[in-house]
Amino acid sequence: MRAFTYTQATDASAALHAALQNPEAKYIGGGTNLVDLMREEVERPNEVIDINALPFSQIEVLPDGGVRLGALARNSHTANHPLVRQRYPVLAQAMLSAASPQLRNLATNAGNLLQRTRCYYFYDTTAPCNKRQPGSGCAAIHGVNRIHAILGTSEQCIATHPSDMAVALAALEAVVQVQGANGTRRIAMEEFHRLPGDHPEQDTTLGRDELITSIDLPALPSTANSLYFKVRERPSFAFALVSVAAVLELEGEQIKNVRLALGGVAHKPWRARTAEEALLGKPATAENFRQAAEAELQTAIAYEHNAFKIELAKRTIVRALLTLAERQLLA
Amino acid sequence: MSFSIDQILRGDIPRVERPPAADPSLVPVRLRVNGQDHDLQLEPRVSLLDALREFIGLTGTKKGCNQGACGACTVLVEGERVNSCLTFAIMHQGKDITTIEGLGTPDALHPLQAAFIEHDGYQCGYCTPGQICSAVAMLKEVEHGDASHVTSDLMATDVQLTDEEIRERMSGNVCRCGAYLGIVDSIRAVYEQQKGQ
Fold first, then answer.
1. Is B15's Cβ below 8 Å from some Cβ in A?
2. Would the pLDDT of B6 be above 70?
3. What is the mean pLDDT of residues A271-285?
4. What is the pLDDT of residues B54-85, one digit of tens each?
5. Is the distance from CB of A216 to CB of A155 less than 8 angstroms?
6. What integer pLDDT is reported at residue B13 of this predicted model?
7. Where are the alpha helices (DSSP H) in chain A?
8. Is A257 within 8 Å of A249 (Cβ atoms)?
């Protein structure tokens, strides 16, 4: 690991100032991903700015009935907060399905969104990787790509975003609150992470001169029913091969409102708008769910080892929606 | 350095630490471990794990994978379990850090230490300090009503610590000897003992 100087920021403007002064500096929150990346020399900051003393750890109700998740609240505290457990089960489930209890105790909410891909070639500094070293190529496209993306890929990069939390936030239409040198702005979850395109080195639309202060969850109708369904190689402490965050609201047997986001399939949480549009106003049946899933995955591209993800994603969508529909029809 | 596909599929990728820089800039770091203050001179890049083992001499905490995957390095910071390998020591000044040495002694074992002996909760013992620190915090989380991925009712605050719950909640601690049956037995025994009190 490269040696670095350690700076402790006491407020947001000091943190922003320190980062603006040194383009090689990195913020550290929980560090669960950054420390590992530094040890592997994928990240080589010469300064680490500790932002843990900043006042962004609260979880509170917003005036519009939504809930604000502080950027520095820990994943474990967020998942177990009564407001999250009661109002946003999809988020609690997604966060509790991620990593291990020890990691969730360190990991922050903002850091969860900013974690890097777990593509093996991104981690292997001897392999070409356009995300780590723009222009060097992509070892995954013709390499071992079982865990890689099937939607929204480019010739530059087929990495996936590893977060579970972000998938639930996409389905919930969360808003990322950001503070920069020139004030604050709001970024819709769908706009926060990027598709790789020609710039896979950019995971998000967050500027270098910006800090996340909170993630805001809009109020959901009390009738909304939600869940997170995660498929992985083992039932605990593993990244998703495919996951589905789903929110469903029925009126009788008709679908009044549906939100779907997929994890493990793209460079960002994949909001399944095509499937949502196909389902609105339709009866909540397995056949309609399957048709919507087919429509969503129509643009999917398989690589040598990940073709299974296309069918798996379809089936996971159907399973998640059927579970929610049955639950609501029985209630 | 290159790896074969077989190595990658097995996860058998050697992880190499580069030698430290020639001119380390040391900074004073005060850590409170098991109730005792330690004034150290450390490079900021020293992990909490290395500070405990190499600079304070508390070698009960183990280095397994050094990447947050195995849990052998689990310690308690302000009573919460964390991977000490994935955090810098300098970030934990002013906090109460508890290691296996602070939980019990050979003459006065912590109930979980005694239970691991009674129920064969280990074979080689390398993962055991991490398992025990993790279990201590896990039982507090259960008492606090925290849910896990296998908790079926997120609204319920009264957690029933089934074996399935124990396994899920301990999944951050790997045992390569495979002593899981004994580990689950040990934790269940202490849980039932505490519940009975």
1. yes
2. no
3. 98
4. 999 999 999 999 999 999 999 999 999 999 99
5. no
6. 52
7. 12-21, 34-39, 75-79, 82-87, 89-96, 101-106, 109-114, 120-123, 165-171, 189-192, 273-279, 286-296, 308-330
8. yes
Q: Where are the domains of chain B?
A: 26-103, 111-196
Query: What is the distance in angstroms between the Cα of A29 and the nearest Cα belonging to chain B?
Result: 10
Which residue has 């998000």 as its token pair?
A204
Is pLDDT of B97 > 90?
A: yes
Q: Which residues of B, range 62-121, sit inside 8 Å of A by Cβ?
A: 66-68, 71, 74, 80-83, 85-88, 90-91
CATH 3.40.350.10 fits B26-103, yes or no: no
Is B86 in Cβ contact with A1 (below 8 Å)?
Answer: no
Q: Which residues of B touch A102 (CB under 8 A)?
A: 68, 71, 74, 81-83, 134, 172
What confidence category does residue A330 fall into, taking pLDDT thresholds of 50, 70 and 90?
confident
Architecture of domain B111-196 in CATH?
A: Orthogonal Bundle (1.10)
pLDDT digits (tens, 9 = 90+) for A137-186: 999 999 999 999 999 999 999 999 999 999 999 999 999 999 998 899 99
What distance in Å separates residue B23's CA from the closest CA in chain A? 9
Phi, psi (rounded to 5 degrees) for B57: 90, 15
Angstrom distance (rounded) from CA A308 to CA A315: 11
* Complex-level ipTM beyond the 0.90 threshold: yes
Section B173-194 average pLDDT: 98
What domains sit in chain A, N to C, each tagged with a CATH number? 5-52 (3.30.43.10), 225-330 (3.30.390.50)
A45-83 pLDDT, tens digit per residue, is: 999 999 999 999 999 999 999 999 999 999 999 999 999
Across the interface, do B80 and A105 touch by the CB < 8 Å criterion?
yes
CB A48 within 8 A of CB A6: yes
Of A36, A92, A144, the CB nearest to B9: A144
Q: Which residues of B22-34 are buried (b: 16+ CB within 10 A; e: fewer)?
A: eeeeeeebebebb
Residue of chain B whose Cα is closest to the Cα of A105: B82
Q: Is the pLDDT of residue A222 over 80?
A: no
**A89 neighbourhood in chain B, CB within 8 Å:** 154
Asked if A92's CB is within 8 angstroms of B154's CB, the reply is yes
Chain A residues with CB inside 8 Å of B3's CB?
A: 124
Does the beta-carbon distance from B168 to A1 stay under 8 Å? no
